[in-house]
Amino acid sequence: MTETAVQPPAWTPDQPIVAIREVRKAFGELEVLTDVSFDVMKGEVVCIIGPSGSGKSTLLRCINALIPINSGSIQVEGQEVHSPHLDKLALRRKVGMVFQQYNLFPHKTALQNVMMAPVHVLKEDKAEVEARAYRLIRKVRLEGKENAYPGELSGGQQQRVAIARSLAMNPDIMLFDEVTAALDPETVKEVLVTIKDLAAEGMTCMLVTHEMGFAREIADHIYFTDRGIIVEHGPPATFFTDAKDPRTREFLSQIL
Amino acid sequence: MLASFQDFFRQLAEDFPRWNFIFFHDPVQADRILTGLGYTIMLSIACVILSVIIGVAGAWMQGSHLRIPRMIVQGYIQFFRNTPPFVQLLFFYFALGQFTPTYSPDGWLEIPVISNVGWAIISLSFFAGAFNVEIFRAGIEAVPRSTVEAAEALGYTRLGIFRYVVLPLAFRVSLPALNNNLVNLVKTTTQAFAIAVPELLYQAVSIWNDYPSALYPAMLLLFVVYILLVGILVFGMHRWEHAMRIPGYGN
Ligand SMILES: Nc1ncnc2c1ncn2[C@@H]1O[C@H](COP(=O)(O)OP(=O)(O)O)[C@@H](O)[C@H]1O
Ligand SMILES: [Mg+2]
Q1: Across A85-89, A122-126, B121-125, least confident range
Q2: Which residues of A touch B154 (CB under 8 A)?
C-alpha cells in the first residue's frame, strides 16, 4: 500500500457516480466544451444528443482521461479524473468505452479481444477470464463466433464484441460513442438490444446517439449539446415534446 | 561413397587444371570451408536477431514523448544509414577496438574482451538496425490511432499498448521491407573479411591464395552458398509472413 497525502471522502452510491462541473476544453484556439456541468447517478441511463462537432465525443473522452481538460472538474465515483495523482488504471477499469468504429484488435479473435485486457492489465487468472469471456460472448449473442477474427465479422457483430470486451473489465459505467452510426440499418437493432439488456441490468450508461427512438425509450435523462454547452435537458417524456430552446427544436425537427 | 566423390574431383582437377575443387577432395580445405560456413551462419543469425531487437527498441524510443530519446535515435539512424557499412566496420574494430579492455589469461597475451567477431556482430547489427528502426516506424505509423485509443481506454500502459497491440500489427506490415533488409544483412556479413573474421569469403580467398587453381571453383562455391543461404532466409520469412496473416484483414 502506498501512502497518499489527502484522502478524499469516500464515495457512496447515493452521490453522483459521474459529476461534471464547469468543464472547459479547447484544442488550441478551438473551444470545444465551454461550460459543461451535469451529474449522472448510479444506474442511470443518460443520452447526449446534438449536432456533429458539438463536442460530444470530446466530453466522453474527458471522462475517462483519454484527453485532458483545461479547467473545471470531472469526478468518477468521487475520484478527480484530472488530478495529477490520478490512478489511470483504476479509473479505466471503472469506465468502459465503446467507439463508433468498434476499434477491435484485428490480430486477435473475438474471444482473445475480450480476454486481453483482464489478463494483461488486471493480471487475472487466464482460465477464469476465459470462462467469463465465453459468458460475455453469449450475453452479446455471439456464441459460435468466439474464434472468428474481427475481419470475419459484420459491423454489428464487431460492435457487440467491443461491448463484451469492455464488460470484461467489470466496469461500473459504460460510455457509448455513436456506437451504431457506422452500422448497416439491419444490424443497428442487434447492438441496441445489447445495450438495452445492459441498461435493464442496472449498468450506468452514457450514450452519444442519433437514434432518437432508442434514446426516448431507454434514457432516464437527455442532454442536448450545441457548440460546447448544454442547451437543454430533461427526461425523454418532456424533452421531445416540450423543447424550449429554438436550437433544440430545430435539431429535433431535422432528425425526427 | 566419399572416396569416389573425392576421386571424381581429384580427376577433374587433373583433366581441367583451372577447375580444382580442392575443398571437395582435400579434407584440410574442406574444413576451412566448413569453418567459414559456420562463422557466416553464426554472424548472420546473431546480426539478424540483434538488428531486429535494435529496430524494435529504436522504434519504441522514437515514439517517446521525451525529446532526448527521440534525438538519440534520430542521430543513430542518420549516422548508420548515411555512412558505408564497410567504414563503420573498420571504425568499430580499429578505432573503438583500441579502447576495449583486455584480459590476460597467461600473463603474456593481451586478449581484448571484444574479439574481431564480436566487433563484426556489433557493427553489422547497428548498421542493419538503423534500417530496421525506420522499417518498424513505418509499420507503427500504419496502426490506426483509434486502435491505440481503444487499448488506452482498457487501461493498457504505453508499454503494454506497444507490446500487445502496436508491435504485432506493425510487424505484419513491416515484414516485406524487413525481409529485404535482412537479405542485405546476410550478404553484408562478407565485409567482416576486412577485419579477419574467418567467415566464408575469408576462407575462400585464403584457399585461392594458397591454390590459384581453386580460384574459379571457390568463387562458384561462394555464389552457390549465398544463393542457398539467402534462399533459406527468404523462404523462412515468407512462411512466417503467411503464418502471421490474419483472416479477413489487410491484403
Ligand atoms: N484531437 C483533436 N484535436 C483537435 N481538434 C479536435 C480533436 N478532437 C476533436 N476536435 C474538434 O473538436 C470539435 C468537437 O469534436 P467532437 O467532440 O468529436 O464532436 P462530436 O462528437 O459532437 O461530433 C470538432 O470541431 C473537432 O474537429
Ligand atoms: Mg463524435
Answers
A1: A85-89
A2: 92, 116-117, 121, 165-166, 169
> Cell 546480426 maps to which residue?
B47
Q: Are strands A95-98 and B111-112 parallel, antiparallel or unpaired?
A: unpaired
How far is the centre of ligand 2, averaged over its atoms, from the C-alpha of A53 (Å)? Answer: 7
User: What's residue B110's pLDDT?
Assistant: 81
One DSSP character per residue, B76-137 reads HHHHHHHS-HHHHHHIIIIIGGGGS-EE-SSSS--EESS-HHHHHHHHHHHHHHHHHHHHHH
* Residue A164 confidence (pLDDT): 97
Is A232 strand, coil or helix? strand
Residue A67 backbone phi and psi in degrees, to 5: -135, 150
CB contact, 8 Å: B11 with chain A?
A: no
**pLDDT value for A11:** 87
pLDDT tier for residue B105 given thresholds of 50, 70 and 90? confident
Domain-located, residue B23: no
Residue B89 lies inside a defined structural domain of this protein: yes
Counting every residue written for chain B, the total comes to 251
CB B77 within 8 A of CB B99: no
**Is B15 part of a structural domain of the chain?**
no
Q: Is the pLDDT of residue A5 over 70?
A: no
All domains in chain A, ordered by first residue: 18-255 (3.40.50.300)
Domain that holds residue B207: 35-244
For residue B234, which of B189, B181, B188, B192 has the smallest C-alpha distance?
B181
What is the value of pTM for the model shown?
0.88
Count of domains observed in chain B: 1
* In-domain check, residue B30: no
Residue B163: give its domain's CATH number: 1.10.3720.10
Check pocket membership of A52 for ligand 1, CB cut-off 6 A: yes
Which pLDDT belongs to residue A254?
82
Distance CA A248, CA A234 (A): 12
Of A120, A148, A152, the CB nearest to B156: A120
Judge: A151–B160 Cβ closer than 8 Å, yes or no.
no
Show the cell assigned to B52. 531486429
Atom number in ligand 1 closest to CA A56: 22
The 8-class DSSP code of residue B192 comes to: G
Name residues whose C-beta falls within 8 Å of residue A89's C-beta, 6 or more positions apart in sequence: A121, B155, B157
Q: Each residue of A206-217: pLDDT tens digit?
A: 999 999 999 999
Residue A60 Cβ contacting ligand 1 at under 6 Å: no
